[in-house]
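Review form for a predicted model. The reviewer records the input and the model, then writes brief findings.
Reviewer: anonymous (R2)
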Amino acid sequence: MSDSEDHHFESKADSGASKTYPQQAGAIRKGGHIVIKNRPCKVVEVSTSKTGKHGHAKCHFVAIDIFTSKKLEDIVPSSHNCDVPHVDRQDYQLIDIAEDGFISLLTESGDTKDDLKLPTDDALLTQIKDGFAEGKDLILSVMCAMGEEQICAVKEVGGGK
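Model under review:
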């Protein structure tokens, strides 16, 4: 027996993993995700149209960029593959808000994550700043896709002080 049999693999496929995976256009549904113009988007509308005698059925996607909330559209033959982003959501506890707009978050492993800025969404921003000022324990949900991260939700844990 050799020591080389002790293999430890992390289940998180981050390093070297593709940021997207292919999926047939005809299989993508409303509520799913798709890459349009190199942006990760959530599909809000799908319509399929049949074309002429020798054409392919085409899928018309209307989607919202998950980070900028911009509306994007694309038309793809239903038999072709589209890129679908790997979208991940992580929850972190808020530790501090710096003067420059960066926030300090506590990860599950006990480390700090200091590379995220406050969200640009006014309602979310107000909720975070007010809750932090009142000394509440806040958990921030961070959406990750295609190398980008952004705070997408906030919730309070435990009873208020």
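Findings: The CA atoms of residues 50 and 141 lie 40 Å apart.
Further findings: Helices lie at 122-133.
Recommendation: see findings above.
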